[in-house]
């Protein structure tokens, strides 16, 4: 299905069209409609009306069964979803088939279970001086926030969109979603599946288009939006916060990162190298959780860097950057690193394949070393297949280096010393610390970042909390 808006249960391609390019070879593979302000307004109005209609009267059981039907609907069209995700992003098919699409299904199933099984608290309250039982019962109910705007990025398009849509719907909100302009296809398929699942018209709406001065900003600045859940760059989060300020709209932000890995001399080195290959180069580094700063304890520094470089050079089956613009940004950091004095231990350029990929947006997996901590290459998020490796001497220095960043999303610690792991992990300023693993996910756990990496937490009940408002009811007995 071609990218289309989905407003009040109806597909439309209103608005001018812009080209959709394949990152694999740069060819045009389709067009995307750019939602004008009135289409965004109609989507917000449809969501508001849905809350006043049958959707607003659904029980949590009914909503959870909708979520399960949506999960089944994606599963039934699994290959179509994989094809669409691969076409939009150019990522290896195996990645889409084992991570992105299964996680989208998992997101709906997880929130169906979590929302249905969610306990609420009650407090019997003693009221001094009252006659009779002298008691009251306080209990908490949760109301949806209303109309929620969901804005998602291009790197894990369906995974990150459904990560917010599932809890938002489970909590009873009506949604207006805007996926990235680079990756509109799986979101459109999702709208189709949601329609087939029988969700009342207006409960889920989808608009396509760009961000600044376009559909994204029309949506986040709309006075009819009660909350904004956003995943993307920190600078975009700041811009969205400014537009949200006008209407004091609640925000949940998952933003950028410059994630450290700490490799201690007592680590299983082969495991640490393999883990770092995954954490730095999966999806060509275009995952917010990817490692871009690696700190290795001095006794194993040379051995580690040689092994990592060898593995980076051997990588062959990797995907492109999402766009020519993003590829140019990544390559500009490769050049900057050299200007700043880096030693390029692996990669550092554009690969040649001898096939249609030579017209695509590729960058080589790259390992750098030799930069001071003040270098822009070490401080700024690149979001490509690149890491800088530096030595450290002791635990305190490792923690200090890890924390010396404006970001604080995820960190990885490689050590076989369990006491060290427990000592170091809580000292790291990050929302997520993985020990001897990376990106091992349990959907019930809190997910998010500190400092410029985000506001709030998603995952499990944290998402259900964000997407609902507690109301305390006090009944005098
Ligand atoms: P981006 O911020 O450029 O775009 C994300 C979304 O925001 C897109 O849909 C875009 O159209 C929209 N947008 C852009 N400007 C807007 C504005 N002014 N108002 C409203 N909407 C606007 O990010 P990207 O390039 O798509 O993704 C890469 C970035 O996302 C990286 O920084 C990465 O670290 C971050 N990211 C973070 C997480 C996380 O969970 N923390 C996950 C994925 C990506
Ligand atoms: O696994 C997740 O739930 C999640 N939100 C991943 C984010 C990855 C960032 O690119």
Description:
This protein has 477 residues and is of the alpha/beta class. 39% of the residues lie in helices and 22% in strands. It has helices spanning 37-52, 60-76, 78-89, 93-116, 157-170, 185-196, 215-220, 234-245, 269-281, 298-314, 324-339, 376-379, 395-403, 418-424, 460-466, and strands spanning 5-7, 10-12, 17-21, 28-33, 122-126, 135-144, 147-151, 174-178, 204-206, 227-231, 250-254, 259-263, 291-297, 343-346, 366-369, 386-392, 407-408, 410-414, 432-435, 450-451, 454-455, 468-476. It has a seven-stranded mixed sheet, sandwiched between helices. Strands 9-8-7-10-11-21 form a six-stranded mixed sheet, with helices on both faces. Helix 9 (269-281) links the parallel strand 12 (259-263) and strand 13. Helix 2 runs antiparallel to helix 4 (93-116), helix 4 (93-116) runs parallel beside helix 5 and helix 9 packs across helix 10. The N and C termini lie far apart (58 Å). The model has no long low-confidence stretch (mean pLDDT 97). (2E,4E)-2-amino-6-oxohexa-2,4-dienoic acid binds at residues 155-156, 160, 163, 287-289, 441, 447.
């Amino acid at each position: 299905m071609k990218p289309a808006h989905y407003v009040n249960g109806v597909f439309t391609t209103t608005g001018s069209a812009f080209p959709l390019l394949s990152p694999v070879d740069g060819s045009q593979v389709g067009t995307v409609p750019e939602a004008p302000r009135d289409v965004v307004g109609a989507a917000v109005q449809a969501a508001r009306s849905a809350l006043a209609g049958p959707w607003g009267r659904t029980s949590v059981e009914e909503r959870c069964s909708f979520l399960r039907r949506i999960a089944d609907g994606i599963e039934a069209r699994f290959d179509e979803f994989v094809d669409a995700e691969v076409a939009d992003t150019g990522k290896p098919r195996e990645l889409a088939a084992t991570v992105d699409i299964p996680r989208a299904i998992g997101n709906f199933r997880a929130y169906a279970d979590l929302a249905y099984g969610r306990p609420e608290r009650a407090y019997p309250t003693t009221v001094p001086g009252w006659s009779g039982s002298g008691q009251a019962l306080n209990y908490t109910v949760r109301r949806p926030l209303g109309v929620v705007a969901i804005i998602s990025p291009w790197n894990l398009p369906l995974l990150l969109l459904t990560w917010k849509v599932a809890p938002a719907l489970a909590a009873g909100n009506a949604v207006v979603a805007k996926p990235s302009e680079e990756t509109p296809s799986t979101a459109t398929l999702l709208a189709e599946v949601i329609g087939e699942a029988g969700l009342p018209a207006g409960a889920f709406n989808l608009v396509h288009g760009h961000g600044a001065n376009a559909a994204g900003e029309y949506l986040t600045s709309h006075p009819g939006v009660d909350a904004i859940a956003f995943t993307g760059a920190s600078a975009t989060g700041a811009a969205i916060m400014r537009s949200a300020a006008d209407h004091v709209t609640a925000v949940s932000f998952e933003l950028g990162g410059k994630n450290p890995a700490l490799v201690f001399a007592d680590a299983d080195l082969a495991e640490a190298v393999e883990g770092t290959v995954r954490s730095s180069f999966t999806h060509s580094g275009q995952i917010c959780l990817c490692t871009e700063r690696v700190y290795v304890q001095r006794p194993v520094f040379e051995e580690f860097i040689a092994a990592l470089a060898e593995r980076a050079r051997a990588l062959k089956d990797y995907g492109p950057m999402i766009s020519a613009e993003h590829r140019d940004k990544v390559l500009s950091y490769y050049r900057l690193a050299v200007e700043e004095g880096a030693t390029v231990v692996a990669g550092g350029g554009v690969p040649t394949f001898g096939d249609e990929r030579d017209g695509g947006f590729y960058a080589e997996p790259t390992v750098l070393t030799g930069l001071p901590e003040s270098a822009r290459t070490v401080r700024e998020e690149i979001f490509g297949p690149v890491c800088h490796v530096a030595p450290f001497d002791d635990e305190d220095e490792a923690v200090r280096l890890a924390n010396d960043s404006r970001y604080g999303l995820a960190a990885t610690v490689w050590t076989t010393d369990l006491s060290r792991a427990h000592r170091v992990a809580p000292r790291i300023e990050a929302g997520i610390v993985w020990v001897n693993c990376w990106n091992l996910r349990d959907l019930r756990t809190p997910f998010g970042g500190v400092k410029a990496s985000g506001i709030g937490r998603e995952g499990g009940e944290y998402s259900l909390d964000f997407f609902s408002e507690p109301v305390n009811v006090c009944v005098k007995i």
